[in-house]
Specification:
Length: 612
């Protein structure tokens, strides 16, 4: 049997590890919300996250790194894993680019892969630094990996406008639920990275130790006495690795096992505590009473939404009709009827001055002709003008403000004076603003795009029915640290969060399920219920612990009638992010990296050095 040629790893070729990284990245994407209806892995179900499989997927990358022989090779494997993960997470951008944007299919695929590949550079740099600075200590390795990986997540989520969709922590929304109000999604991702590293080190050590035992030199019987000879079969060539695995025998296996058990034991002890542990981080919050709501889902196809004869006509008819029905229901049953009806993002697809008195008079009239404290409406619509610019906005109409607006019906330009207004702050790149140097790309699409104006970061909440309502629009609920700015003053902090979205741009895809998991985690982090009113789904009510209590079927037209308990008080996550944003996370991870990198000999014994 011939020896392995120089340059080949004893644990498989680069081609094998390429597929390990590719499959691991795809599994990480699926762990956020399982996308397949025909089959699933154990413990997974359609549209639901799996923290366990997210840890397994990340451990596949760690294994590939532990058998890398060069820093560049490790960075390449990190890039492959991350590109597969991110492309598998937001592949549905293809639908908006091709189906609704008119890009050729090949160009839309290329655009999605290019975006995933560019964002993956953060992770490639992170694992490259890991392999350059990796210490011998197992614990230090795990902490260094988790810190660098979290820094890459933070950079992806915030540099160059930020696109944190699909961060690994979202897969942990159930498994690590007690940690959400303490450390948030990035802290949960940090813990998952430690677990993944410990799991990979354990597997690597066991395989390596068993392989060494099976391939060790074997003593063969010979002549007894002084003439006895010992013959040995040569062992295979094993290359040095840039990230040390378990090379110190069963003691190394034991140490990695202890690391895995210590971290897993802490997590499982919190899970085993049931609801008490789940809500431990929200012990400082309290109920502010009930809010009865109707959440509207128009299910207007995206290709018709801005067409005068179809989508616009449906919206201008159905949404006012539902608001009028809500008013009637509250009038007939004041103690059980809706106090608030919510229409989704751009439910009214035209500017107010493009709609005449024949539209506004009945809508405002149905709200105004109520006793004080009757049903109010929160409606998504565009606002602005050619001269002042446009905003993606929400109007809040109470009986009182609707009555005053009705008096100004003859002057549409002043219709919104005194009406509660929220303007979207975090705009979608290419959708609501065009990044510099990319005008050529948007010109290729058949989507009417423009540069919208931004609203303020900490806009006031809307006082209604004993609650303080804080709306956010579309993917703004990805940025928990921005929502938390409204929690700086506990006395004026929101008691209910409402997300108004239109995910019809991405069809009947897993984007709907992913966005629901994102909203669940925001509710858990901030200790507030999150109401979701969407065009096509997922329209849902999420309580302050992240549990979905009510949900409307996707791609159906209808309303979700529910009640929710508002909450006061501040969670630890809301408190520290309201003051400092994510700076403590940045600083903590950077300090860990600097300390571990400067003490690279941590864990060395008796002059042992790591092979290069």
């Amino acid at each position: 049997m011939s020896r392995r040629p120089p340059g080949r790893s004893a644990r498989g070729s680069g081609f094998v590890w390429f597929w390990v990284c590719l499959l691991g990245g795809a599994l990480q994407a699926a762990s956020i919300a399982w996308p397949f209806t025909g089959w699933s892995l154990p413990g997974m179900s359609v549209g639901q996250p799996s923290g366990f499989w997210q840890i397994v997927s990340l451990s596949m990358l760690v294994l590939a790194l532990q058998y890398a022989t060069r820093v560049g090779q490790a960075a390449w494997r990190g890039w492959v894993f991350s590109t597969a993960w991110l492309a598998g997470t937001f592949w549905w951008l293809f639908i908006s680019l091709h189906t609704y944007g008119g890009l050729p299919a090949w160009l839309a695929v290329l655009a999605v892969l290019a975006l995933a590949g560019l964002l993956s550079i953060y992770y490639a740099v992170a694992v490259g630094l890991l392999c350059s600075w990796a210490p011998v200590s197992r614990t230090a390795q795990a902490l260094l990996f988790a810190s660098l990986w979290t820094l890459a997540e933070l950079a992806r989520g915030h540099w160059f406008t930020g696109f944190p969709w699909g961060a690994g922590g979202y897969a942990q929304v159930d498994m690590m639920a007690p940690w959400a109000p303490l450390v948030g999604v990035y802290g949960m991702g940090f813990l998952a990275a430690i677990l993944a590293y410990a799991l990979a080190s354990l597997v690597s050590g066991l395989v390596r130790r068993l392989s060494a035992w099976m391939l060790s030199p074997v003593s063969r019987p010979g002549r007894s006495g002084a003439g006895a000879r010992i013959s040995s079969a040569p062992g295979p060539r094993v290359q040095a690795r840039v990230v040390p695995g378990l090379t110190d025998g069963w003691w190394g296996v034991a140490r990695s096992t202890l690391l895995l058990l210590a971290v897993a034991g802490l997590l499982l002890s919190m899970l085993g505590g049931g609801q008490a542990w789940r809500t431990w981080g929200q012990r400082s919050t309290a109920s502010t009473g009930e809010l009865r709501v109707w959440l509207l889902q128009g299910n207007i196809p995206q290709d018709q939404k801005f067409e005068p004869g179809t989508g616009i006509a449906q919206a201008l008819s159905w949404y006012p009709q539902q608001i009028a029905l809500a008013v009637e229901a509250a009038r007939n049953a004041p103690t059980t009827g809706p106090q608030l009806v919510v229409a989704p993002e751009t439910a009214i697809p035209l500017l107010p001055n493009q709609l005449g008195a024949e539209f506004w008079t009945p809508l405002l009239g149905s709200l105004a002709d109520q006793a004080r404290g009757g049903t109010s409406a929160l409606i998504g619509l565009p606002l602005g003008s050619m001269e002042q610019g446009y905003t993606n906005s929400v109007w809040g109409l109470s009986p009182e403000t609707a009555a005053r607006a009705r008096e100004r019906i003859g002057s549409i330009a002043t219709l919104g004076t005194g009406v509660y207004r929220y303007d979207k702050n975090h705009l979608v790149p290419f959708g609501e603003f065009i990044p510099p140097l990319f005008r050529w790309f948007t010109d290729l699409m058949n989507i009417p795009l423009g540069d919208f104006n931004r609203g303020g970061l900490a806009q006031p909440s809307w006082a209604l029915a004993g609650q303080r309502i804080a709306p956010n629009i579309c993917f703004e609920d990805l940025f928990g640290e921005e929502i938390a700015v409204s929690f700086r003053d506990a006395a004026t902090a929101p008691t209910v969060l409402i997300n108004l979205s239109n995910i019809a741009w991405f069809g009947n895809s897993v984007a709907i399920d992913q966005h629901l998991q994102i909203s669940r985690l925001r509710a858990m982090e901030l200790g507030r219920p999150m109401l979701r009113a969407t065009n096509t789904g997922a329209t849902a009510v999420i309580d302050h612990t992240g549990l979905v209590t009510h949900q409307l079927d996707r791609l159906t037209r209808g309303r979700l009638e529910a009640s929710v308990q508002g909450r006061s008080g501040i969670t630890p996550y809301a408190e520290w992010t309201a003051r400092w944003g994510l700076m403590p996370m940045w600083v903590g991870c950077l300090l860990l990296v600097l300390v571990i990198a400067s003490l690279r000999g941590l864990g060395r014994r008796g002059g042992r050095t790591r092979r290069r």
